[in-house]
From TrEMBL:
A Pfam family hit: HMGL-like
Pathway(s) served: Amino-acid biosynthesis; L-leucine biosynthesis; L-leucine from 3-methyl-2-oxobutanoate: step 1/4
Top-level class of the enzyme under EC nomenclature: transferase
Molecular function terms from GO: 2-isopropylmalate synthase activity
One biological process term in Gene Ontology: L-leucine biosynthetic process
Oxidoreductase recorded as keyword: no
Organism taxonomic ancestry: Bacteria, Pseudomonadati, Bacteroidota, Sphingobacteriia, Sphingobacteriales
This protein's name: 2-isopropylmalate synthase
Family stated for the protein in its record: Belongs to the alpha-IPM synthase/homocitrate synthase family. LeuA type 1 subfamily.
Keywords: Acyltransferase, Amino-acid biosynthesis, Branched-chain amino acid biosynthesis, Leucine biosynthesis, Manganese, Transferase
EC number: 2.3.3.13
Membrane-traversing stretches: none
Coiled coil stretches, renumbered: none
Organism name: Mucilaginibacter straminoryzae
Pyruvate carboxyltransferase domain segment(s): 8-269
Length: 388
């Protein structure tokens, strides 16, 4: 079968990188529930955990591997044989197992985290991939802190691990350091300079310390990466990981990019709520795609334009991400078109003068009350008009 060059694989790490957030730990049954939802969303790869980190994590990977069929199930390791042994053992029941092994690639990590040299780290990287390859065919290698690594050393590392058998090479911006053009150029450099790069898929794994995780991930895809790693709601330690729903909807909205995923976007909203509840991590109201206000129009100018043609202020249809519906919020900034819209929805038809009168009383009410609901509107109309 021919490989589609424009297909982007989506790798979810909500249950591994996402779950590293303090206070967000999940039980195995909760993880299984999320994994099943991720499968139904169409996620290609689920990173189920880091089996060597604890017996609980080991068991979660085992149970997730048993619970899902279509996605690849991936387990994280350091470049240590005992980690790789644990991952291989935990993945025994996976239909499509992947081991995700790796090591630091920046001089900062090499010197101050590993107290080592570039040469020694390169040897360890290659040895880890070769060792993991004894257990499974599908090996992803991560070059930790690639965002700050020397590009020539990074290219050498990527080339060496592909020669050792890596099928996916992950280029993490572990500290969320890069600017989009820097990160995109790194991916382009690897694509153009690494021997046999086409034998592996380049993966982008970005963190959000500067609020650039989504932009960097998209820059990576535009420059040749074909796997994107992230989490639902962008959950993750510090400022979080790339938000999967954002990247997927960017590719869908900008179809001129020519890239596509296999994701059933209509399930995003429900899954977002499930992850938020189980992880006890609220979604900020103005969060793109899944925030409570993502499809709420509140200023008079926007409401008027939206009511004339929703595309004036709506680049994504709420139903495409499973959001209940767009809303016209009534506040003191709302115009009379918005008030008319809501009154008609409740069955009141007003002529111009009646609407002007109702609008004046509405403004007085809205100045003293934050949320104007249907009961308030009905109260406003008492005695003024007969219902249609
Ligand atoms: O951010 C990172 O570098 C990681 C790796 C372990 C893949 O999460
Ligand atoms: Zn990470």
């Amino acid at each position: 079968m021919l490989h589609d060059p424009n297909r982007v694989y989506v790798f979810d790490t909500t249950l591994r990188d996402g779950e590293q957030v303090p206070g967000c730990q999940l039980t195995t049954p909760e993880k299984i529930e999320i994994a099943r939802e991720l499968e139904s969303l169409g996620i290609d790869i689920i990173e189920a955990g880091f089996p060597a980190s604890s017996p609980g994590d080991f068991q979660s990977v085992v149970e997730i591997a048993k619970a899902v069929t279509n996605p690849t199930v991936c387990a994280l390791t350091r470049a240590h044989q005992k980690d790789i042994d644990a991952a291989a053992e935990a993945l025994k029941y996976a239909k499509h197992p992947r081991i995700h092994t790796g090591i630091g690639s920046s001089d900062m990590h090499i010197r101050t985290k590993f107290n080592s040299t570039r040469e020694e780290i390169l040897e360890r990287a290659v040895a880890a991939v070769k060792y993991a390859k004894k257990f499974v065919e599908d090996i992803e290698f991560y070059a930790e802190d690639a965002g700050r690594a020397d590009i020539h050393y990074l290219a050498l590392m990527v080339e060496s691990v592909i020669a050792a058998g890596a099928t996916v090479v992950n280029i993490p911006d572990t500290n969320g350091y890069c600017l989009p053009d820097q990160y995109g150029s790194k991916i382009r450099f690897l694509k153009e300079n690494v021997k046999n790069i086409d034998k592996a898929i380049i993966s982008v794994h970005c963190h959000n310390d500067l609020g650039l995780a989504t932009a960097n991930s998209v820059a990576g895809l535009q420059n040749g990466a074909r796997q994107i790693e992230g989490t639902i709601n962008g959950i993750g330690e510090r400022a979080g990981n790339t938000s999967i729903e954002e990247v997927v909807m960017i590719l869908k909205t900008h179809h001129d990019l020519g890239l596509h995923t296999n994701i059933n976007t209509k399930q995003f909203y429900e899954l977002s709520r499930m992850v938020s509840t189980q992880m006890r991590m609220p979604v900020q109201p103005n969060k793109a795609i899944v925030g409570a206000n993502a499809f709420a129009h509140s200023s008079g100018i926007h409401q008027d334009g939206f009511l004339k043609n929703r595309e004036n202020y709506e680049i994504i249809r709420p139903e495409d991400v499973g959001f209940p519906s767009a809303s016209i919020v009534l506040t003191a900034r709302s115009g009379r078109h918005a008030l008319k819209f809501h009154l008609e929805r409740l069955g009141y038809t007003l002529n111009k003068e009646e609407l002007a009168d109702a609008y004046a009383r509405f403004l007085t009410l809205a100045d003293s009350k934050l949320n104007i609901d249907d009961e308030d509107l009905k109260g406003l109309m008492v005695g003024q008009l007969a219902k249609v």
